[in-house]
């Protein structure tokens, strides 16, 4: 007799169309993580906002997503996964229209909060629906197809957003969601089957408020810490205290409560916990690179925006190709070896970037980006398959929300740490290198005594000093990512053989 986990819990009339619907729904949410960032300068001008004010367009979306994501399991059990997915895609599409029509920053931020709240539930629901539609032996292949839609948004977002903003208008980064959202709604209505509901399931509001406060405080701290100079800011200190205190109370609460917000049995499952760590590290290793590489090419290599977008395409190609390969290999081979190979690809590519300089060729950027894409595409599927291998069907949505939350939080953590290393290394290196530049330096003395030449000479030295210290900062950031990639391999020893 087949194990319950091997059953197809939600048989569908047209599985390819159902899969395409789930992929399209996931694409909607993932593309808005990156596409809007490109449009921020234009939106800042349209709303006459300061850099700190316009950042709330991103911050509000991230914080709202993080707070709502863990609720997907409870809401889905109350009203059903199909109904909830339909509501979320509808809400996200309507919110996108409001974002495009916004005539003030306040209205824009409110619309982005609605986007984040509704979009946050799409990925966990998609995870559980994929698992329900396919038998366990095909989970790897199914995740491969789904991931192509779920992660393609983050890959094509910067290039697509740059084109729309530059040649049409920033509003169209939001208008783009509307036709895709309508297609997804039609697909959900016709091709997704409803799941069983439990109208008696109660909500642990105390646990939810604790977790929402902890996650919201952490996301605000990570997003605003760099601008407010971290612990020199009273706001950051308050957010840190709230995060630590609410996290400790929440962990204690779920283990003693008779009706916990999150099932503590998921966290004491060693395989799931190890996969949660790996999924979180996946966010840390893949998202920050997508942020700092364009900055590197723009600030030091002086590439134009369209060239930067072109040079990012190999990463997307690597992800797409490896997703399909990984999906098929995961069903046949030990997932631990696939994850280990993926981490090696990420580590090697990150280490290769520590060798970059002002003469770095486009070929070097292209093959490094492709190798990163291969590592990212291969890693995520076996991690998810391993995570759900021993999870009961009724726990899938909740487990998926935990995995997605971990990946989301560590993406923000990775961005903050990487930028902190970049700026701190730049500042420290500047102090060290500046000691070698002085009017009393024998090499510079003749030039610096000439007032006319000095006016030209010193700005040149200043620009060169800025470029050299910034290069050191990027190299240290790349080295950090390489070290984390190789160290992450150790967590594979926590997972038993498939």
Structural class: mainly alpha
**Total helix count?**
19
**Straight-line N-to-C gap:** 20 Å
Which percent range describes the beta-strand content? under 5%
Q: What's the overall average pLDDT, rounded?
A: 84
* Most strands sheet: none
Number of domains: 2
Rg, Cα atoms, Å: 24 Å
Topology pattern, helix = H, strand = E: HHHHHHHHHHHHHHHHHHH
Name of the CATH first level of the largest domain: Mainly Alpha
Care to count the β-strands? 0
Low-confidence blocks of residues: 1-6
CATH-scheme architecture of the largest domain: Up-down Bundle
What shape does the CA trace take?
globular
CATH superfamily of the largest domain: MFS general substrate transporter like domains
Give the helix proportion (percent range): over 70%
Q: Within the CATH hierarchy, at the fold level, what is the topology of the largest domain? A: Growth Hormone, Chain: A
């Amino acid at each position: 007799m087949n194990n319950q986990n091997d059953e197809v819990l939600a048989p569908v009339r047209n599985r390819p169309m159902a899969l395409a619907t789930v992929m399209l729904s996931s694409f909607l949410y993932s593309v808005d993580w990156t596409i809007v960032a490109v449009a921020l300068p234009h939106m800042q001008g349209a709303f006459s906002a300061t850099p700190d004010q316009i950042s709330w367009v991103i911050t509000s979306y991230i914080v709202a997503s993080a707070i709502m994501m863990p609720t997907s399991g409870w809401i889905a059990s109350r009203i059903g996964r199909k109904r909830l997915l339909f509501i979320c895609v509808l809400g996200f599409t309507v919110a996108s229209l409001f974002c495009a029509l916004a005539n003030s920053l306040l209205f824009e931020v409110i619309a982005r909060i609605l986007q984040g709240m509704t979009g946050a539930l799409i990925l966990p629901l998609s995870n559980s629906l994929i698992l329900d539609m396919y038998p366990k032996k095909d989970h790897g292949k199914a995740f491969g197809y789904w991931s192509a839609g779920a992660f393609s948004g983050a890959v094509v977002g910067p290039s697509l957003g740059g084109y729309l903003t530059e040649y049409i208008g920033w509003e169209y980064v939001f208008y783009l969601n509307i036709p895709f959202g309508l297609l997804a709604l039609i697909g959900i209505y016709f091709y997704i089957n409803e799941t069983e509901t439990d109208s008696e399931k109660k909500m642990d509001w105390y646990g939810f408020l604790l977790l929402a406060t902890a996650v919201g405080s952490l996301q605000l701290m990570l997003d605003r810490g760099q601008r407010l100079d971290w612990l020199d800011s009273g706001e950051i200190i308050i957010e840190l205290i709230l995060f630590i205190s609410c996290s400790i109370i929440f962990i204690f609460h779920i283990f003693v409560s008779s009706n916990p917000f999150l099932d503590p049995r998921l966290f004491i499952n060693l395989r799931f916990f190890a996969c949660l760590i790996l999924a979180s590290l996946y966010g840390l290793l893949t998202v920050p690179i997508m942020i700092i590489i364009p900055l590197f090419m723009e600030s030091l290599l002086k590439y134009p925006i369209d060239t930067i977008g072109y040079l990012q395409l190999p990463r997307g190609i690597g992800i797409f190709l490896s997703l399909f390969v990984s999906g098929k290999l995961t069903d046949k081979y030990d997932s631990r070896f696939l994850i280990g190979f993926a981490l090696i690809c990420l580590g090697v590519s990150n280490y290769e970037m520590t060798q970059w300089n002002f003469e770095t060729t486009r070929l070097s950027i292209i093959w490094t980006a492709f190798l990163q894409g291969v590592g990212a595409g291969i890693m995520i599927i076996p991690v998810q398959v391993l995570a759900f291998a021993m999870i009961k069907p009724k726990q899938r949505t909740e487990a998926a929300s935990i995995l997605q939350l971990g990946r989301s939080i560590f993406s923000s953590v990775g961005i903050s740490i990487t930028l902190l290393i970049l700026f701190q290394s730049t500042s420290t290196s500047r102090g060290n290198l500046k000691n070698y530049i002085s009017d009393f330096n024998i090499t510079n003395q003749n030039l610096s005594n000439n007032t006319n030449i000095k006016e030209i000479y010193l700005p040149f030295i200043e620009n060169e000093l800025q470029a050299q210290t910034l290069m050191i900062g990027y190299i240290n950031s790349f080295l950090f990512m390489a070290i984390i990639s190789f160290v992450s391999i150790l967590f594979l020893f926590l997972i038993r053989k498939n």
